[in-house]
Design brief:
Elements: H1 4-14, H2 25-37, H3 42-55, E1 56-60, E2 73-74, E3 80-85, H4 105-116, H5 122-139, H6 145-158, E4 161-163, E5 170-172, H7 189-202, H8 211-222, E6 231-233, H9 239-244, E7 259-261, H10 278-286, H11 290-303, H12 309-328, H13 334-355, H14 357-378, E8 381-383, E9 395-398, E10 402-409, E11 419-420, E12 424-425, H15 426-430, H16 457-460, H17 465-482, H18 491-516, H19 522-547, H20 550-557, H21 562-565, H22 573-588, E13 595-602, E14 608-614, E15 622-627, E16 638-643, E17 653-655, E18 661-663
């Protein structure tokens, strides 16, 4: 009850001047509130304020400047005085010139981050303010070991404080999606120092949380599954499906990617078209176990303190609302369709408010269901493809010869920049090109068999270095001339680009030959390849970057994408060739105009938006990014395409297949364990 320094510290926060004045009635009222919050008995509060009011007054100085550090004032008759105890002459706290408490720079940084956060509500900010007090005690040299331990225990119990594996991030898990508010996505030296101090006080390691694994777990659970028993595959016995798949662009899909989920009758035959059996198809989609699995996983993580309970509550509310729509509304109807979209809309808002990190993990999987279910409820003929590698589209829609893609989800607008959902590999988009010779031009990672330089070897690889350089130059000329971009590079430019690419290829092939003789596992092979290629990437990346201007890159793949190709003042030679090929492939791919793209995101006012746009052949309407290295965690991806549709919207981040968030400029994860 006698922690006077702590009480004055809090009082300094609450008064506008930052300097408590114990002769000021308004300051005394604030002091009363603080004492009440600190659970001082009412008689103790009354006694303290009475003593302060009785004993503190003007202490006149007869000679000299008075006690050291006091703030002398001039009375009405010219006498000098300071405020203090009239009996003892002890200066009052407000009369000292430098009484304002100066916070540790680390604590000040944490306070600024909490105060300036746009995403913490009033209650969370109030709790954050309390946490600042506790952190201030941790850094205060005058605080006793017992008080420091009490402060740490409070942070762990009330803020659910934890850290990550490298002890650089501070998680206040009670804040849900804003858990990293004082350390940011990557952690800082200040947050690392706080963790070290906390662990020293505790005498043991602080609990670590692996939120990447949590996100991956939830993303996996949220993946829709209509059941393998409901798959109807190629070759189709059903005449209706045979005719449907003769239509453009389904007639360009490889047979091993062809198949749909369907409602089957008692004999195992598909009930077609889906528009004739809307309610049965809707029931099948509602019964898919992904929502139930997601709720179960979320409940598990809530018990562990990893996720805000509001996430599970929002999912259960959504589940109940879908059942209400099915049981109480007419299907098909516009009303039931709109009600389904509104339920998904509410789900996005509620999850974002509870734990915004979970929105991307869950909605990127559920987005296709939102559209599928709303269109079934409206009586439209739609199907979900059964193949996990179905190119471009996540949903087949009959009636306008169109496929609708739900590959783009933008969420957390204004929080971490525009974030787009899992992009499509360029390889899958090329597969629907009307020209068969262009369908297999894009690879998935540097050094891939048959795609050494991220594009088909037949396009650029020769028998030796010189033939490779010549083939590459011919490739550049042919691909750019075909789409009226022949003037993008001069003859000298093409020779220089081709020479750099050929030298890079030679170095890569030399390293691959050495590794192939070592009988390595694929993961060890590509790990060693990446290590040995570091200096090669550095050298030829700089040379390529010096040889190509942003204006030239913009001409190829759009101005919005120039910064995605040139990263850290380097352009990878293989990515350069891939960019040239994809600039041709997009511009010549007529099938792209037969697609639609749906985006679901939060606008600048925090409201969810469901937006569908027609596909185009303009590279500037696409976010073009590059994930060209194979790692232990992924087998590449190659050039990545996300449709934006306005020729001016460029995401800063994308949601990857595993649910993590990746910066498109650096290729690094922004939400890492």
């Amino acid at each position: 009850m006698n922690n006077w320094k702590k009480i004055l510290n809090e009082l300094s926060y609450r008064v506008s001047s930052g300097i408590p004045d114990l002769t000021n009635e308004q300051h005394l009222l604030k002091l009363w509130d603080i004492l009440k919050e600190e659970k001082w008995p009412i008689n103790a509060r009354v006694e303290l304020l009475k003593n302060l009011q009785e004993k503190i007054g003007k202490v006149y100085v007869q000679k000299g400047k008075g006690p050291s550090g006091v703030n002398l004032q001039v009375g009405p008759r010219g006498g000098k005085y300071y405020m203090g105890n009239t009996e003892t002459g002890e200066p009052a706290p407000e009369s000292k010139k430098d009484v304002k408490i100066t916070k540790n720079t680390n604590v000040k940084d944490f306070e600024d981050r909490i105060t300036k956060s746009q995403f913490l509500n009033d209650e969370q900010k109030k709790l954050g303010k309390k946490s600042i007090e506790k952190m201030d005690m941790i850094y205060d040299e005058n605080t006793s070991p017992e008080q420091k331990k009490e402060a740490v225990d409070w942070l762990i119990e009330n803020m659910k404080m934890s850290t990550n594996a490298n002890k650089k991030k501070v998680y206040f898990n009670v804040f849900g999606g804003e858990r990293k508010v004082i350390s940011g996505n990557s952690g800082t030296s200040k947050s690392k120092d706080l963790i070290q101090r906390v662990e020293k006080i505790l005498g043991e390691p602080l609990e670590t949380k692996d939120f990447k694994s949590v996100t991956q777990k939830i993303t996996t659970a949220a993946k829709p599954d209509l059941g393998s028993e409901n798959i109807v595959k190629h070759p189709f016995k059903n005449k209706y499906l045979q005719d449907l798949h003769k239509k453009n662009p389904l007639n360009k899909i490889r047979e091993n990617n062809t198949g749909i989920f369907a409602v089957l009758d008692e004999s195992g035959e598909p009930k077609l078209p889906s528009s004739k059996y809307s309610k049965e198809y809707l029931r099948q989609s509602f019964d898919n176990p992904s929502l139930k699995k997601t709720i179960e996983v979320v409940d598990e993580e809530v018990k562990k303190g990893n996720i805000d309970p509001g996430v599970g509550k929002s999912l259960k509310t959504h589940q109940a609302e879908l059942e209400r729509i099915y049981n109480e509304m007419k299907i098909p109807s516009e009303e039931s369709s709109q009600a389904i979209l509104e339920s998904y809309n509410k789900l996005m808002v509620d999850m974002n408010n509870a734990d915004s990190d979970m929105v991307g993990a869950i909605m990127k999987q559920q987005a296709e269901m939102a559209l599928y279910q709303s269109e079934l409820a409206k009586g439209e003929e739609v199907y979900l493809p059964s193949s996990g590698t179905f190119p471009v589209g996540d949903k087949i829609k009959n009636g306008g010869d169109e496929m609708e893609s739900v590959a783009l989800i933008s969420c957390k607008y204004g929080k971490q920049g525009r974030i787009h959902g899992c992009p499509a590999n360029s390889k899958t988009i090329c597969e629907i090109h009307q020209d068969e010779s262009k369908r297999n031009n894009q690879g998935q990672y540097i050094g891939e068999k048959g795609y050494t330089m991220l594009i088909n070897d037949d396009l650029v690889i020769g028998k030796d270095r010189n033939e490779t350089a010549q083939k590459t130059e011919n490739f550049i000329t042919e691909k750019l001339d075909e789409v009226d971009l022949g003037n993008t590079f001069s003859s000298d430019d093409k020779k220089k680009i081709s020479s750099i690419a050929a030298d890079y290829t030679t170095e890569l092939q030399k390293i691959q030959k050495e590794l192939e003789s070592m009988n390595l596992s694929p993961s060890d092979y590509y790990k060693l390849q990446a290590e040995r290629m570091e200096s090669v990437d550095e050298k030829y990346g700089k040379l390529m970057s010096e040889s190509v201007s942003d204006e030239q890159i913009g001409s190829l793949i759009g101005e919005n994408n120039a910064g995605n190709l040139r990263r850290s003042s380097k352009i990878n030679p293989a990515e350069m060739l891939s960019a040239i090929e994809i600039s041709n492939n997009i511009r010549t791919n007529e099938t792209l105009e037969s697609t639609e793209h749906n985006k679901q995101y939060f606008d600048k006012d925090g409201k969810p938006v469901f937006k569908t746009q027609k596909g185009t052949r303009n590279p500037d309407d696409w976010s073009i990014t590059f994930r060209s290295k194979r790692t232990a965690g992924r087998s590449g991806g190659g050039t990545q395409l996300s449709f934006t549709g306005d020729g001016g919207e460029r995401p800063e981040s994308i949601i990857t297949q595993d649910g993590t968030i990746e910066n498109v400029k650096t290729g690094k994860e922004e939400f890492e364990a």
